[in-house]
Specification:
With 524 residues, this protein is of the alpha+beta class. The protein is built from nine helices and 27 strands. The chain has four domains: 171 residues, no CATH class; 134 residues, Sandwich (Immunoglobulin-like); 79 residues, no CATH class; 96 residues, no CATH class.
Length: 524
């Protein structure tokens, strides 16, 4: 995986604690690699700092400014190939926010020598502490690198220095058509001159998150296509980009665009969609390169999450308006707590829109609306006998409640219960609860899933010990958690899941870990 979205399908670089001065700054990171027409490769980092988590110093004009120091080092093996240190400066803010962490200094303001791109150097008139970003470009030879990034609040000597390590790939194959990483964008505009944020004639302000909240109305991106003349000569070709459900892989016809391009060494693609009406859910942005015979030559996808509760709830309400529950099995459900529990148990097998409704039900939910939703859900699963469909599923829910329930969770609310209800009973289940070198864990194998995937594995572990709440640590199934450092987490070398799914640099801790890897590869 080349694109690194270190928040949500990414990395939160620090813990919370906006007003605790001993806490580290909160930062978000994404990266991408590109190639110039002349064949030079480069790697870009996009870092956004949460303005509410740093200390500000008073400047000579009475305004306040934050400063965050970024240090980065690229290694190839044990050899340092490139290193850099620079500052990202916040916008100026006033002194009316009493919660603001401020530091007054007596020296006059001095301009910082800084070739990073930071947010606008203007005063925030509302005296908020806005987030601000920096973009850096590093010219590196094609290859794989270990990278370490350190982030430091310059104005707060008590704050912890954030440090994160990972692996990155720079460059692409020169022998076949390739699609670069995608840079998600907050905005873009024509560039009057070249800068660290400009590519292909446009200035691009990065969007570092893979999460799109309700207030985000557009999804914009930039990517590049390489080597088309080698394969297509002078032929024209088609680039199709679209959104699809990450769960069902169904293409959304309202979110599909197609354009014809002429073969060139580098073909830039700057595109996007209005997502104002896109429902809550997990999606993939997919880019296809298609030849004149309508054959897909190569494809890349980039995942993101959309949260759009107003659209989702309006859609659900509209779909339920004409549902008639008179004389059906749900009409006899009198206990509202039971009804809510029944609906909550549907989560493991629900689609994204239904799942949002399920997660949103509350004590104040309308009883008739809940019953219409519940009945409509099972009619969709079995139009001829929805009651039987529910009865069969409810029996499985009761089973997982007995097998996987804890003192504070019902079985269907646990990871093992969810996987069992979604995929069925595993073909193989290996349990290890007495290994002194690791957390208790289980490895489940499915010979074949309903969507046709074969030989898929799930590994669960119990970090809390003695609670029976096993957490899904890693899976090879599409759309599930993937964590290549699962061995290190399982054997206590990491206290939390890794900062990058591509980072697998830690050695296996002992022979038991080797045995676990063998058990994962060959369940028995």
């Amino acid at each position: 995986m080349r694109i690194k979205r270190f928040i949500l399908t990414g990395l939160l670089l620090s813990s919370m604690g906006a007003f605790t001065q001993t806490k580290s700054p909160e930062a978000y990171l994404s990266t991408a690699s590109f190639v110039t027409p002349s064949g030079n490769t480069y790697f870009e980092t996009y870092i956004t700092i949460s303005g509410s988590t740093i200390v500000y110093e008073k400047k000579a004009d009475g305004k306040y400014e934050g400063k965050v120091k970024i240090s980065i080092e690229f290694k190839e093996g044990d050899s340092v190939k490139k290193s850099d240190t620079y500052n990202i400066l916040s916008p100026f803010v006033g002194d009316t926010n009493k919660k603001m962490a401020l530091k007054e200094v007596k020296v006059p303001a001095q301009p910082d020598k800084d070739d990073s791109i930071s947010s606008k150097r203007t005063t925030d008139s509302a005296n908020r502490r806005p987030d601000f970003s920096g973009v850096k470009r590093y010219w590196l030879s094609k290859g794989d690198y270990s990278v370490q990034i350190k982030i430091e609040d310059v104005n707060n000597p008590l704050a912890k220095v954030v440090s994160v390590k990972g692996k990155v790939s720079v460059g692409y194959s020169s022998d076949s058509i390739a699609i670069s990483d995608a840079e998600l964008l907050m905005s873009y505009s024509p560039a009057e001159s070249s800068s660290a944020i400009s590519k292909s004639g446009y200035n691009m302000i990065p969007y570092v998150y893979s999460f799109y909240p309700e207030e985000m109305k557009t999804l914009s991106f930039y990517t590049e296509i390489y080597n088309t003349p080698k394969i297509l000569q002078a032929s024209k070709f088609v680039v199709k980009y679209y959104l699809q459900s990450a769960e069902s892989q169904v293409v959304l016809s309202d979110y599909t665009k197609v354009a014809v391009h002429t073969a060139d060494t580098v073909v830039p693609i700057l595109g996007g969609f209005n997502i104002e009406k896109l429902h809550t859910g997990r999606y993939d942005l997919v880019v296809d390169v298609i030849d004149k015979d309508n054959k897909v030559l190569t494809s890349r996808s980039f995942g993101f999450i959309r949260n759009n509760p107003a659209v989702t709830m309006a859609s659900v309400d509209k779909n339920l308006t004409n549902v008639n529950i008179a004389g059906t099995f749900v009409e006899s459900i009198k206990n509202m707590d039971s009804l809510r529990d029944y609906i909550s148990s549907l989560g493991p097998i629900a689609h994204s829109d239904d799942r949002y409704f399920i997660n949103s039900i509350s004590q104040g939910s309308d009883e008739n609306m809940l019953k219409r939703f519940f009945y409509n859900f099972w009619v969709a699963h079995n139009p001829t006998d929805p009651k039987k469909a529910w009865d069969d599923y409810h029996a499985q829910v009761l089973l997982v409640n007995r097998k996987f329930g804890t003192s504070y969770k019902k079985g269907y609310q646990t990871d093992r219960g969810r996987v069992y209800l979604q995929y069925g009973s595993p073909s193989q289940r290996d349990q290890e609860t007495i290994n002194a070198d690791s957390y208790p864990y289980e490895i489940w194998e499915y010979y074949k899933l309903a969507d046709g995937e074969s030989d898929k594995k799930f590994i669960f572990y119990e970090p809390a010990l003695a609670t029976n709440d096993f957490v899904l640590l890693h899976s090879t199934a599409k759309g599930e958690v993937q964590n290549r450092q699962w061995q290190q987490v399982l054997f206590g070398q990491l206290l939390m899941p890794p900062t990058s799914v591509d980072d697998n640099t830690l050695p296996m801790p002992n022979q038991n870990a080797t045995n676990t890897q063998d058990l994962f590869n060959n369940p028995r």
